[in-house]
Amino acid sequence: MAYTMADVSGMSGISLNELSQYVKSGWLTPAFAGRDQNEVYYEKPELLKLQQILFCKELGVEHEEIGSMLQEDHHDIIHMMQQQRIQLLEKALHLHGLIQTLDKTISHLQGEYELEVRELYQGFIKKGHHSMLPDSTEAPSHEPVITKNWHPVQSESAVSYDGELKTKEDYLDSQEKIDRINRGLQRAIEDGLTPESPEVQHIIGRHLEWVKDYYTPTAEIYRDLGNLYVEHQNFRQMYDGYHPKLAEFLRDGMMIKAEQELT
User: Which of 163, 167, 174 is CA-nearest to residue 98?
Assistant: First the structure.
């Protein structure tokens, strides 16, 4: 089925003027023109390309980079969209922390909750803003160091979403906790247990409590975090160090836990 530019504008919410700019830039070429050369039509491949343009803009891709990204072949486009999905999941986790801060502040202003000073800025800390390295004399790195029990939730900042500053001791204790959790899941896989088994769900419960040290997830957020474990390269690299099936095993267990305890 073919659509006019007005149709596309109505579906996407993008103005006719902006769509025309995409055409002039070479990002969005019409499928064909009508009898009147000023009347152009778009089909599903062009609509998919427009969606990709909007995703790029949403994720802050530089204007000059968008055109080259749209020229990638089919498999590269799929890979790029998978990476975009990961970025959006990470953004969702960050926004969840900000929403919690907003809810607490509203409750405070309504006289329903006493907001502590340390809670004022939770969720605003940017990745890499504080060093998480055990040696505080080293410069903070914007790229996480991949270790056996590295976890990107910890790497986002030295401040948990509840506003508590994380000391070197807190960091090392958290590392030990998640390592014990991962080793417990590794043994469960080797013993032939399933994600829904009581033994595994007990371990997943410890994982949920560990996550709550950083923020309180909803069922949706916890499920999304499980998907992130499977899809994010850094997570996969860390979990594969324990067992090649651990990422999926943990994800499946988290889905069950989210359904049973967070909904």
Answer: 163
Nearest by Cα to 223 from 122, 99, 94, 89: 89
Neighbours of 25 (CB within 10 A): 12
| Residue pair 181/231 in contact by the 8 Å Cβ criterion | no
Q: Give the span between the Cα atoms of 208 and 36, in whole angstroms.
A: 61
Q: With bands split at pLDDT 50, 70 and 90, how would you rate the model's confidence at 126?
A: low
pTM of this prediction exceeds 0.90: no
Structure tokens that stand for 190 in this block: 């080797």
Q: Can you tell me the distance from the alpha carbon of 158 to that of 164, in angstroms, rounded to the nearest whole number?
A: 9
Which contacts of 81-89 are long-range, i.e. CB under 8 A and separated by 24 or more positions?
A: 81/52, 81/55, 82/231, 84/55, 84/56, 84/59, 85/231, 86/228, 86/231, 86/232, 87/59, 88/59, 89/224, 89/225, 89/227, 89/228, 89/231
pLDDT tens-digit series, residues 45-91: 999 999 999 988 888 888 888 888 888 777 888 878 877 877 777 77
DSSP string of 155-197? HT-SB-TT-PBP-HHHHHHHHHHHHHHHHHHHHHHHTT--TTS
Check residue 211 and give left, alpha or beta (phi > 0: left; psi -120 to 50: alpha). alpha
Per-residue pLDDT tens digits for 5-15: 999 999 999 99
